[in-house]
Amino acid sequence: MKKIGMGLVGPGFVAGHHIDAVRRLGDVDVVAIAGSSQQSAEKKAREYKVDRAYGDYKALIADPDIQVIHNTTPNHLHLPVTLAVLQAGKHVISDKPLALNAEEGRKLRDAAVAAKVAHVVTFNYRGNPLVQQARGMVARGETGPLSFVRGYYLQDWMSDPNVYSWRSDPAKGGATSALGDIGSHWCDLAEHVAGAKIVSVLADLATVIPVRYSSGASAEAFVGTSGGNRQPMQVNAEDLASVLLRFDNGARGCFSVGQVLPGHKNDLELEVNGRALSLKWRQEEQNELWIGRRDQPNLNLAKDPSLVCRDVLPYVHLPGGHQESWADAFRNLLRDAYQWIREDGRPEAKPAPLPTFEDGYRSTCLVETMLRSHAAGGRWEQVQQ
Ligand SMILES: NC(=O)c1ccc[n+]([C@@H]2O[C@H](COP(=O)([O-])OP(=O)(O)OC[C@H]3O[C@@H](n4cnc5c(N)ncnc54)[C@H](O)[C@@H]3O)[C@@H](O)[C@H]2O)c1
Fold it and tell me: What CA–CA distance (Å, rounded) separates 362 from 102?
């Protein structure tokens, strides 16, 4: 089988996981990476054991050995890099959020559809086997009609005021921080599992740490900080938010996000309550799905190929009791992406769970509606798309 040539732009924190995941697929060749300079690209290429390094992403896009480009740059570079990939007619995998705002998101969605290539956004929690199990149980009516969808996505890595990265800079991260960064994951997951769309929102945002201290270095996510000559930087984007939700199937919901909540590492939880059953999944205990029942004892369903539904089996790689992880779910998502790429991105060949630029654009609309709701003093706002 001829290997597919892959190139990556933006070799920071999440890039290593993209490279690791595609290498595990076996039929993808990591041809080159592009960084913010020739020097940084070469350093990262040595680290990741990639042969070619480019100091300019346009040169990587032009490389004839590359058919698919992964964009893992900071958010403000998602539009120019992804647009250039699409203009070159190559397949593209963008990390989330698709773009800085809904206007940019729409531009990218339209360009991707016009280019007739595979276009994927890494809402990677969809790749978890028990997420697919929950989605199937809702879709088959096992939960009964949903009345409530709730949860949170809480982290603590920004609790330290000495953490200042492009995420806090509105020119690079966008007008939002927690909602765009992790709220986008939660909303995508909630809609994916519930099989329903959020139609209106009421949001309350807060900036718990309004002044951060920057060393001037472009800090990578989740890296600890110490020392250095630091300058105070004003931060306006939210690091905490709570949102009430209404869904198009009549369900109500709510979720909170925060990046300044000590002790919460990557604490994502989603619960859906139907008239017959409730289901709850927590990222930090991702090998279990809680099934809540009124008239029988509650259950914890283990991730076990002998216990999950048949259509979930491609997402499970180990027997029960062998823990699978964030990286395995990420790989599942990229496996589906490359399956679509092998089909040349034909719309009818897209694996059903795979998130596209349509989903990425929708996510930018949702976040923008939440910002609008908060700015209006906490008013219900309809999602426009
Ligand atoms: N799917 C997930 O769960 C997940 C997790 C983390 C980050 N992300 C997303 O991935 C993206 C990157 O986040 P990160 O945490 O890896 O950030 P990061 O700051 O660690 O990495 C960004 C990299 O891009 C490089 N870069 C900057 N300008 C560039 C240019 N002009 N050309 C090429 N490279 C350039 C930087 O030097 C850095 O190495 C963001 O959009 C973020 O939201 C997604």
Answer: 8
Ligand 1 lined by 364 (C-beta under 6 Å): no
Domain with CATH 3.40.50.720 in the chain: 4-125+335-362
Q: What is the pLDDT of residues 291-306, one digit of tens each?
A: 999 999 999 999 999 9
Q: 288: which strand partners?
A: 302
* Atom number, ligand 1, closest to the C-alpha of residue 11: 39
pLDDT of res. 312: 98
180, exposed or middle or buried, with CB in 10 Å at 0-12, 13-18, 19+? buried
Residue 72 Cβ inside 6 Å of ligand 1? The answer reads yes
The three-state secondary structure class of 91 is strand
pLDDT digits (tens, 9 = 90+) for 229-279: 889 999 999 999 999 999 999 999 999 999 999 999 999 999 999 999 999
Cβ of 220 less than 6 Å from ligand 1: yes
CATH number belonging to the domain at 4-125+335-362, selected among 3.40.50.720, 3.30.1460.10, 3.40.50.1470, 3.40.50.1000: 3.40.50.720
Average pLDDT of the segment spanning 21-35: 98
| Mean pLDDT score of the chain | 96
Per CATH, the homologous superfamily of domain 126-334+363-375 is Dihydrodipicolinate Reductase; domain 2 (3.30.360.10)
Cis peptide bond upstream of 145, omega within 30: no
DSSP helix/strand/coil, 115: helix
Predicted confidence at residue 96, as pLDDT, reads 97
**Ligand 1, atom 37, residue with closest C-alpha:** 36
